[in-house]
């Protein structure tokens, strides 16, 4: 995947339509914004969140679903600090601004064959968007959606991935939990090994904790499958100006997560 500094990001207003808790520590927000007309799967937005004038940095968040006709976008986010806590307090009708679409999203697979999607934790929203992208392109997929425990599984996102795969009778959507409280008992990489032993895949897509993506990348490479990974870095500007979001690459170079990513060819990343 080449470095692509083709920034399309602009400033948009957004108005909250709904904002509710959907799993332990995880919220889903639906908002209306013109950015819905421009988003592609795997891209992200940088949100100005009201409530703390001392906090001038925006919060980068991916999306799971964007609908041009209604100009609505859905995001799911974990409350981890002050910015996401203030985001969770925004009520229907509240307004602010975002910068987007940011970054470089998922590509359609170069090789034919079933795709395998693997997400862990709050890595699920861009994987939902990937499932809808593949479905729209007529590409069959299986998905593994992991969480630590059942109460952290974002059920509405699992349903969205199932809906995207519903046109394919052979589509498998595996929910995995670390403690076995729901679905497959173990890490997503264990579930991936099982699927790889039963089926062949042409491509893989992953988003989640770095150790999980490193494992998915290793398994995909071992099976000869091209894998795309959506990375996270701490971000300052979100559009290439501050160089604080460096990603070390396997060839010794560095790239910017906010501009060259967040989606990278997994084999090019120095895990
Ligand atoms: C491209 C991109 C897409 C993202 N998409 C989503 C998403 O769809 N849903 C979601 O819940 N989160 C997403 N994140 C992570 C989200 O941006 C951070 O959780 C958020 O910025 C934390 O802000 P805060 O003010 O609440 O917490 P802070 O007080 O800033 O930090 C709280 C804790 O979170 C850690 N943290 C903060 N920012 C990041 C980051 N960028 N990556 C890893 N750890 C971080 C800090 O080290 C600290 O431990 C994404 C991040 C990036 C870079
Ligand atoms: S966040 Fe500023 S360059 Fe990437």
What labels describe this entry?
271 residues, alpha/beta, Elongation Factor Tu (Ef-tu), domain 3, Rossmann fold, 2 domains, seven-stranded antiparallel beta sheet, seven-stranded mixed beta sheet, 5 helices, 20% helix, globular, binds flavin-adenine dinucleotide, binds FE2/S2 (inorganic) cluster
Task: List ligands, each type once.
Answer: flavin-adenine dinucleotide, FE2/S2 (inorganic) cluster
User: Which structural class is indicated by helix and strand composition?
Assistant: alpha/beta
Give the full name of the CATH homologous superfamily of the largest domain.
Answer: Nucleotide-binding domain of ferredoxin-NADP reductase (FNR) module
The CATH architecture classification of the largest domain is 3-Layer(aba) Sandwich
Could you say which overall geometry the principal axes of the C-alpha atoms support?
A: globular
What is the number of helices? Answer: 5
* Poorly predicted runs of 5 or more residues: none
Order of helices and strands: EEEEEEHEEHEHEEHEHEEEE
Distance between the termini: 17 Å
What about the largest sheet? Answer: 7 strands, antiparallel
Q: Can you describe this structure?
A:
Helix content is 20%, strand content 32%. It has 271 residues and is an alpha/beta fold. It folds into two domains: 10-102, Elongation Factor Tu (Ef-tu), domain 3; 115-268, Nucleotide-binding domain of ferredoxin-NADP reductase (FNR) module (Rossmann fold, 3-Layer(aba) Sandwich), CATH 3.40.50. Helix 3 (155-164) links the parallel strand 9 and strand 10. The protein is globular and about 55 Å long. The model has no long low-confidence stretch (mean pLDDT 95). Residues 235-238, 240-245, 256, 258 line the site of FE2/S2 (inorganic) cluster.
